[in-house]
Each structure stands twice: as structure tokens, then as C-alpha cells.
Write a structure and sequence with these properties.
This protein has 221 residues and is mainly α. It has two domains: 144 residues, Tetracycline Repressor, domain 2, CATH 1.10.357; 50 residues, Homeodomain-like (Arc Repressor Mutant, subunit A, Orthogonal Bundle), CATH 1.10.10. 74% of the residues lie in helices and 0% in strands. The longest helix is centred in the middle third of the chain and has 29 residues. It comes from Streptomyces aurantiogriseus.
């Protein structure tokens, strides 16, 4: 999962330039049929959620999408490509959401690093709730080979971005540990949101976690 970011868009491409090639992430050619891609991703999410990644079948995904298996391979290269495309879609949407929140807060005159960080964390967690089916799929252990390495790589970038937002000196071990703990709290809260029964419970969790983050984010006296 992605974290609190300073800017939306393609930051992953700038920070992890070899990610697509190394992990087999599908390219998005100009002019590609977005309707076909959307139908395939929607069907893949349904089947992955119901059966898990390992037991999901490409034939079932193609059938539910109404798209031939051949087109599935053409657009995504197989099951792994579908999963990674879902991950990228979720991550980029979360980045857009948190970046827009940070921009709005700064435009209101907010410049306190902790206030900005907590506002971004709230936006991120609200996004997890809004997209909880996809979010929960992506934190499960049942994933393509090599995905854990990709997720860890992104988690490290997430910690670095949070450190910049909180203006923490990453050269100091205490600062690094504090930001890593805070980032872990957000990740744990995201998993809890997936098990919420309704929006009221989800909002209670988000409020509680933001209170914890305010406390944890304060620099030591």
C-alpha cells in the first residue's frame, strides 16, 4: 500500500524506475481500450477476492469480464499482470487523494508538519475504507511471486516520504524509528478498516488512529 505523499501522479516511476521492468508490471500503451481494461480489472478483483490469487483462474476472469482470454493476455500478460495493475490502480488513487488533501490544507494556511501529516493520514485511511475490497486483497499473503519484495520497496519509500512531511532528520536513528513506527500504525489501521461492519465503525477507527498519530508524531521534548 502507498503512503502519505507530497504530490500525486507518477511518483513511483520517479522513485522506483526499474519497478515495471523488474516486477513485470504491465505497460499502458497510448490509445489502449480503457473499457476492456476496466472490465478485466473489475472481473479480476471479483475472482481474486472470492478465490484468492493462487486459486483464481484466467478462464473465469475472462468469462466474467466478457473479454476473450486472448485479449486478457494482450492487455495484461496473465494473472500476475492483472494483480499488479490492481495494486498500481489502488496506490495511485490513494496518492491522488492524499496529495489533494495536503494541497487543500496548505491553501487554507496550514503549515504545521504534524497537522499536515495527520490530515494526509486521514485521507489515506478514508480511501482504504472507500476501496476496502481492493485494499484488503492487497495486504493478503496470497499474491504473485515477488510481490512481497515490491511491497517492501514501496513501504521504504513511504517511510521516507512521511519523514520529509514530518520534517524528521532521517540521519538520526531515533527519527527513523519514530517515522517507521508511525507508518506501521497507519498500515495496521488500514487492515482493521477492512473488517469494519459499517461506516460508523470505520470513522471511529479513523478518528482514534488520527489521535494516536498526533501523539506519536510529536517530537520528543
Amino acid at each position: 500500500m502507498s503512503g502519505i505523499v507530497e504530490s500525486a501522479g507518477t511518483e513511483v516511476a520517479r522513485q522506483l524506475p526499474d519497478e515495471r521492468e523488474g516486477m513485470g508490471l504491465p505497460e499502458t500503451p497510448t490509445g489502449q481500450n480503457r473499457t476492456v481494461r476496466s472490465a478485466l480489472l473489475d472481473a479480476a478483483l471479483e475472482v481474486f477476492t472470492e478465490r484468492g490469487y493462487t486459486d483464481a483462474g484466467l478462464t473465469e476472469i475472462a468469462t466474467r469480464s466478457g473479454i476473450p482470454v486472448g485479449s486478457l493476455f494482450q492487455h495484461y500478460g496473465g494473472k500476475r499482470g492483472l494483480y499488479l495493475a490492481l495494486w498500481e490502480e489502488f496506490r495511485e488513487e490513494q496518492e491522488r487523494r492524499t496529495a489533494a488533501t495536503l494541497t487543500a490544507e496548505r491553501n487554507r494556511g496550514v503549515d504545521d508538519p504534524i497537522a499536515l501529516f495527520v490530515a494526509g493520514a486521514r485521507a489515506y485511511l478514508e480511501g482504504v475504507w472507500d476501496n476496502r475490497r481492493l485494499g484488503m486483497l492487497l495486504v493478503e499473503d496470497d499474491a504473485p511471486a515477488g510481490f512481497d519484495a515490491l511491497r517492501r520497496q514501496w513501504d521504504r519509500a513511504w517511510v521516507r516520504r512521511n519523514a520529509r512531511l514530518l520534517e524528521v532528520d532521517e540521519k538520526r536513528r531515533a527519527g527513523r524509528v519514530r517515522v517507521r513506527v508511525i507508518t506501521t500504525v497507519i498500515g495496521g489501521a488500514a487492515r482493521e478498516l477492512g473488517d469494519c461492519g459499517d461506516e460508523t465503525e470505520a470513522r471511529e477507527i479513523v478518528d482514534e488512529v488520527c489521535g494516536i498519530l498526533i501523539h506519536l508524531s510529536a517530537p520528543p521534548s
